[in-house]
Structures are given as C-alpha cells and as structure tokens.
Design goal:
By secondary structure, the chain is an alpha+beta fold. It has a single domain, classed as L-fuculose-1-phosphate Aldolase, CATH 3.40.225.10. It is 40% helix and 12% strand. Strands 4-3-2-1-5-7-6 form a seven-stranded antiparallel beta sheet, sandwiched between helices. The longest helix is centred in the last third of the chain and has 24 residues. The protein is globular and about 55 Å long.
C-alpha cells in the first residue's frame, strides 16, 4: 500500500537531488525539507546519507514536535531548525540548507551580503542578512532549535536578536516571504520558498549572489549598494502588483 506521504517524500527527494546537481554541496552536506501544512508534517533528508545512494524510501517524515511519523532512518541533524522555521514563517513549504562555498564564506565572515546589483534586486529588495553569532548558552541549551529561533528573531524580532544590517545599524524586521534567504553566522546559508523546489532555487540564487558580491568587492573594495530607485524598479517589475517580468 502506498504511503499517504509518498508525494511529500518524492518532493523532498527530488529537491535534495538538486543540491549536488547545482553544485551547492558535496558528499552528505546540506538538506532539503518539504512541508505539508495541512498535516503539520515535513519530509526531510536522512542524516549522513550520501546523495548518490539515497532513495525516496530513505526520506524521513516528522511532525513539528520532531516525532518521526514515517521512515526508519534518523532525520537530518538540522531537523529542529527546519521545524522552528515552519512554526514561525507563514506561507513557506520548503527549506534548503547548504554549505555552498561563497554563501558559506560570507556566513563565516559574519557579514550580510549588500545589494550591489540587479541580479540580487530581482529576488530581494534588501541585503541578505547575517544573523548574530549564536551564544554559548543557546548552543548548550538546544543548538539546532536555537539556530532556528536565531533566524526567526533576526527576521521578525531583530531587536531581540541584536541583529545588525550591512552598515552595522540595527536591522529592521523583514518579511520572510519577500526575503527568502539568510546567512547563519559562522555556519552557512538557509533558504526557503513556497515549496521544496523553490527553496532550492533560492539557495542557488543565494550562492550566485554571494559569488557576484565577492567578485564585485574584489574589483572595487569601496563599492556602494545599488541605488534604491534601481532596486525598486527591478524588484517591482518581477514581484509587484503590476509586475511584467515573464509570461502572464
């Protein structure tokens, strides 16, 4: 008998296979989850299983309390982080975590990615935020849960997180649906979307934006962010109420 979660597991599996295909991680690094909001469960990559041997049946389904609903393998060690994001971010149906080199390098440098060009503006009208460094107390309390809460607070309650923008000023609250990516200081990137496939797409975009920003700063260390009127034009033409990018 087919599992009631079969389509969800297939969605998660196919999205996970995009990670090595897009060069976003090697070996067992990274993970993608797919969320069924109606059942409050999500399917996620099993921990430590290489992409080239992973099968659909290896995908693990858990609920938001981290209880394993289906599957015999241990879920990703990042599962609690995914659960926190699903609890707090409305309208997301997929999450991707990678260790892609350029985005991870910005995270390790503990720097947000300034909005330097229109490629970035096509996907977000803001710099990609980097969280503050997680505290020793949070790591000892519940590392993966606290990582999720750090991301949540950076977006929804930046004053609580002590989050700063790319200029070192207090970060303003951000809409996760309009800014689907983040860097976790010292750790790496997370991205999300309406479904698992879109979360991987956003993770790939984040890696390219991170690479372009690094190259741009190498060419011009004094580079200023893109003028706001250009940012607004590019973001609105793709995401605004009168958007005209693509086929309608």
């Amino acid at each position: 008998m087919s599992s009631v979660y079969q389509s969800l597991k297939e969605e998660a599996f196919e999205a996970n296979m995009e990670i090595p295909k897009r060069g976003l991680a090697i070996y067992t690094w990274g993970n993608v989850s797919a969320y069924d909001r109606s059942r409050a469960v999500f399917a996620i990559k099993p921990s430590g299983v290489p992409y080239d041997t992973m099968k659909v049946d290896d995908i693990v389904v858990v609920d938001l309390d981290l209880k394993r609903v289906e599957g015999s393998l241990n879920p990703s060690s990042d599962t609690p982080t995914h659960a926190e994001l699903y609890r707090h971010f409305e309208n997301i149906g997929g999450i991707t975590h990678t260790h892609s080199p350029y985005a991870t390098s910005w995270a390790q440098a503990r720097r947000s990615i300034p909005l330097f060009g229109t490629t970035h503006a096509d996907h977000s009208a803001h710099a990609v935020p980097c969280t503050p460094m997680i505290s020793r107390e949070a790591v000892e309390r519940a590392y993966e849960d606290e990582t999720g809460l750090l991301i949540v607070n950076t977006f929804l309650h930046p004053e609580k997180a002590g989050a700063l923008d790319e200029n070192g000023l207090p970060l303003k609250a951000l809409n996760p649906s309009e800014n689907p990516m983040v860097l976790v200081a010292g750790h790496g990137p997370f991205a999300w979307g309406a479904d698992a496939a879109m979360s991987v797409y956003n993770a790939a975009v984040l890696e390219q934006v991170a690479r372009m920003a690094w190259i741009a700063l190498s060419l011009n260390p004094g580079l200023s962010p893109l003028p706001q009127y250009v940012v607004d034009k590019h973001y609105e033409r793709k995401h605004g109420k009168n958007a005209y990018y693509g086929q309608r």
